[in-house]
Amino acid sequence: MKYLANCILALACVAGTSYAVAAETVAGHIQFITGEATIIAANGSSRPASKGAPVDAGDRIRTGPATIMQIKMTDGGLLSVRANSDMKIDQYHFNGKADGSEKEQLSLATGTFRSITGLIGKVNKQNYKITTPVATIGIRGTDHEPFHIPPNADNSNQDEAGTYDRVNSGQTILTSNGGSVLLNPNQVGYVPDSNTPPARLPQMPGFFSQPINFGSGSSAGAGGGDSGDSGDSTLLSQIDPSSTILPTDTTQQAGLTQVVTSTLISGSTAPVGWGGAGSYSQLVNSLPDSGSGSISYERSPLVTIGSNNQLLYLKTTDNSGLFEFNANNAPLLQTGSIQVKDPTTLTPLYTVYWGRWGSGFSVVDNGVLQQSVGDFHYIWTSQVTTSSQLQTLIANQMTGYYTNIGHTLPTDQNGTTGTLNSMSLNVDFGAQTVQANISVSMPNNANWVATGNGSLTQFLDTNTSGSGGVPLSTGSGGNVTIQQTSSSVHGQFVGPNAEGAIASYNMTGNLATGAPASITGVVALDKTCGGGGC
């Protein structure tokens, strides 16, 4: 596959809950990590962070870009450390019970993490503390997120530098040399320097628009504090009530509201019937390239779907290696949904959801973090046509003509949007062939017109060779020379009788000026011809 194609299972099991007493120096174990992080021991030696590895008292943790690391503490607490953070476990002692000897002290030099306290601090609250260069944070049975921004050497970010603390549940006390402030749920405290009294902010800063979420099955359990604190064990992507809800876009116009997502961790295995497709652009040797693909539950991907039906996380493997998409802090620029209808009665049957993420997401493809550019497009449904249902359609020599009913706005490698003029699929299930036609208009009179012929196997990304998609080439009326080797359509059918389809497309080519470019997008399609043909 190229990018999202030919996906099969890559299940990363989440460590189970355990409160067994560990060696005195062991503070916890890494339950999940994506990206890269370094652990620097008290003796100065360093080691790369890895899933299942212990984290000891005295260890310093430094995370890289696009990194999320979740640590399960031995007292049942949880830490989720975000990208570009530098924190240290200064002291940690837990002998299996809250007898007054337990202690946890963390320091944060830069960046942020989320902490759900365990048994340490549940009874003896004074034994849990977080320090930053300008403040100290104490707790009262708490789920909270400290955030420290150091001032730049040239003072260019002096207005925002300082320590923040957001409380999700319970209470914290933010203290500096100038005084203290008590923070309750959904409040954020801020102190710019060590001598200024802390204050509650009148509104939530943008980087706190949602809490950092924990992985499936992760919970503070018995150590969850006084306020019923728990990890997000059922829905990793649960939207905070204070965040903006993006309106459903059924007219295919980009939403103007931007929703900042939470930092995500691995999702749950896709349920029976789930299937999706996606596309994005990247730079290869400084030149724009693109990729698209599709996937179904039969290959057991790990997925996270948000409360607005947006795809937040996808992880799987294919013949080329690991593929992992993470929305991170990208803005959700567009979202929409529509129902596939019965081609004869026009009765609404199955819902399809799509959307488009702006810059800030991360993609690991072939096991390598890609230099993603432009936007990431996705489309999914919970009613894909199964392999057995397809075999029935093939045996009965069914045919179908599919046309666009909903889509994301096509984008190029710069995130510039265009117009999808038309897209159609002509499918002969008996002959197992797919013909695709696409017309896209981009700014500066760039008309991408493509046509392609391929097999049902190519369209469904089931080639065992690792290549997939119906290849596309320049069609009549286009003024962009499309490169067939890097342009294709992938998808899945919707409903037991393939009443609809979802598809992703990617095209790389040369504009009339000779400049290289790429465009991507996703489309929902309805079947407009019955079983007798078109």
**Domains (count):** 2
Termini separation comes to: 31 Å
Instruction: Evaluate the radius of gyration.
Output: 25 Å
Mean pLDDT: 80
Q: Helical percent range? A: under 10%
Describe this structure in words.
- It is built from two helices and 38 strands.
- With 534 residues, it is mainly beta.
- It folds into two domains: 26-223, Sandwich (Jelly Rolls), CATH 2.60.120; 267-527, no CATH class.
Outline:
The chain has 534 residues and is mainly beta. The chain has helices at residues 387-395, 456-459; strands at residues 7-8, 26-34, 37-40, 46-48, 54-56, 60-63, 68-73, 78-81, 86-93, 103-116, 128-131, 136-149, 162-176, 179-183, 188-191, 199-200, 268-269, 275-284, 287-296, 302-305, 311-318, 321-326, 332-341, 348-357, 362-365, 368-369, 372-381, 399-407, 411-412, 419-428, 433-442, 446-455, 470-471, 473-474, 481-482, 488-494, 500-510, 516-527. It is elongated.
